[in-house]
Fold these 2 entries.
Entry 1:
Amino acid sequence: MYVIAHLSDPHLDGSEEARSRLRRITAYLRSFRRPADVVVVTGDLADHGLDAEYAEVAAELALDVPVLMLPGNHDVSAPLRAGLAAYVDAAGEGHPVHQVREVGDARFVLVDSTVPGEDHGLLSKDSLTWLDDVLREPFDGPVFVAFHHPPIALHHPVMDQWMLQELDAFEAVLTGKPITALLTGHVHNAVVTTFAGHPVLGAPGIRSTVPLPFEPASPGGGLVDTTAYPGFALHVHFPGEPLQTFYRFPV
Ligand SMILES: [Fe+2]
Ligand SMILES: [Fe+2]
């Protein structure tokens, strides 16, 4: 058995509200009778990309298991690399922050889908070439490709401006590759769909939830509902069996 705890969008900003929502998740993880094999956090770690926020991220996610992190549109490459050096192992400097990490029997290809200074996502030609090369490397075990912006149209008038763009080239790279699942965040929703023939598994937003247009409006009428329970995904893999995903919203 291999257990991935998939967290996303804590948006730490120094506030007690953001910190306490993340702590509901980390306290639950720390209480596991059998620890998760790895924790993967799919972006928007800090709310403004500040050094102090990354110091908080580093402290709050200091768990007794390996923790992998990748950037979202609220993150900033240089302070993220500097402040999260214990968590992020990426070649080069600045943007993009791509990583290939192996933890136990699994491989994680952590792709930086961000565009500096923008909220939408986009993978450059160089990034797609890098990803294609990595996915062609033989690996005997489950392979997870993780990134912040999901390759879906949410059909949400605000969120759709900020989604991953130019999906055709991304789809071509992923199609037919040995991938167990694509792990994403950004939309602050537990969302499950498919892309390029692979499962897309989105983690809930820890900081908030984005109601869909046909759901009740969030309290206050804004884009996000900060009263919804923070949650995370558990992806459980048994060799030779389909991946199982569970969602948890600890009280
Ligand atoms: Fe976010
Ligand atoms: Fe985001």
Entry 2:
Amino acid sequence: MPMRENEYTVPEEIPTNVECPACGSLLFLMNYEMEIPHEGHIMIQTYTCHSCLYKKSNVFSSEPGRHIKINLRIDSSSLLNTMVYRSPAAFVYIPEFGAEISPGEKSSGYVTTVEGILRRLDEYIDMMPYEDEEEFNRVKALLHEAEEGNIPFTLVIDDETGRSSVSSDRATVEYIQ
Ligand SMILES: [Zn+2]
């Protein structure tokens, strides 16, 4: 009997650079996607630690293929540890700073923290410097202050494929037509 597609996706474990809150080892992430009668499509993200067996799961109702925009206001340094999955198709930006990562041809998805996103933004603008040097220095300085937890900002992830996610109750998800 042929398998029905989309009923269940065999999860793949992805190594992350997120530290286990219990023992400090690096966590692994699994994404399960499934269809549930009357609920529709849901995604379960499970972070596990191979060293101490720490486990944390988040459940999202997701509609893959729908364009989403996730917003997370970072106004406390503890939120810098929020886990983020950025899909290969996502734009990541901080409107207050004018800093952005665009999906490139070789772009791959990754799991990191908000702090990790700040570091990637920092590296990204080194590779694609602004024409205006003053502006470049201004954005670099803001990113460094943000990494230290000294200034609030908003993290925005704009994803046409709807697959990115931010593991925080404070994140809002907006569906774009
Ligand atoms: Zn652990």
